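Weekly structure sync, notes
Attendees: PL (lead), two postdocs, one rotation student
Agenda item 3: pending single-chain targets
PL asked that the sequence for the first pending target be pasted directly into the notes so everyone works from the same version. It is reproduced below exactly as submitted, 308 residues in total.
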Amino acid sequence: MRILISGSSGMIGRALQAALKSAGHAVTRLVRSGGGPDTLLWNPDGPALEPEPFEGFDAVIHLAGDPIAEGRWTPAKKERIRTSRVRGTRLLCGTLARLKRPPRTLLCASAIGIYGNRGEEPIRETAGRGNGFLAEVGEQWEEATAPAQRKGIRTALLRTGIVLSAEGGALAKMLPPFRLGLGGPIGSGRQFMSWITLTDEVGAILHILNHPELRGPVNLTAPHPVTNAEFTKALGRVLHRPAIFPVPAPMLKLMFGEMAEAILLGGARVEPGRLLESGYRFQQPELEPALRELLKANNEISRPSGLR
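Predicted structure, written out during the meeting:
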C-alpha cells in the first residue's frame, strides 16, 4: 500500500515506519518542515491544505500531537495539547474528504484518557466518555475525524494506553530512580496502569490496518492491566532493586499540578476487547516478562546484589 503517516518523528511513529517498510509498504511522511524524499509538507495550524498532493494514498495513519506528560499544564500548554490534536485532525480529515481518490482507511491516534479516572471498573470500547481535561480533549479529537467518516473512509480510533519502551516514553522516565533503588508506588498505588509494549503497539496498528472490519474506537492496551503498585513491584524485581519508596500524592500535585492528578494519580482498567475479538495475538501480554525482555534488550538489567 501507499501509506501517509503523520507524527513520524515520535517513538511510535519511528517504530511504525520501520515495520511498514519492512512489510513492503511505500511510506510518505507528513511533516511540518524539512521536506526531502518521501515527505509531504503541511501546516496543521493553517487554514487549508491543497488536496492534490494527498491523492492516491491507500491509507493515512495520523499520530501527530503535542506531548501530554511533559511539564505542568499551564493554560498555554493545555491549549497546545488540544489544538495540536483537534485542529490538525480536523484539517487533515477535511482535506481527505475533498479528494477525488480518498484513502480507503484512516487510522487516527487517540488515547485511553478519554475514559477518565475509572477506578477498578473494567473498561471496553463501549464505555462512555469520562470526566476531566483529557477526556474532553479525547472526545473532541475523535469527533474531528467526522469529515473522513462522512466521506466513507474507514476510520479506526487508536485509543492507546501507556506505551512501554526502554528507549523512550514513560518507562524510560521511571528507570533512573529505580536504578538507584529509590523507586516505589505513586500515591496510593491503587490506580490502574493500562500498558502496552511498543512492539504490540506497532503490531496492533498493523493488525487494524489489515482488518477492514475494525472501525471506530479500538483499545490498544495489553490484556492484563495492573495497578501502579503491581507495576512498580514488577519493575523492581526485574531490575533487582527495591521498590519501597512511595511518591506522596501531595508532592506530585505540588510539582505537576493538574497533570499529576490526571496522569500519575488517576487511571482506568482498560481491556483490548476489539483487538482480541478480531484475532490479534499479543507478543508481550504479561507485564513482568515484557519488562524483562525490554530491559534485557537495552542492557538495563544488572545482576542481583551478591552475584558474580
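Discussion points:
- The first helix runs from residue 11 to 22.
- The chain has one domain: 2-297.
Action: rotation student to compare against the earlier draft before next sync.
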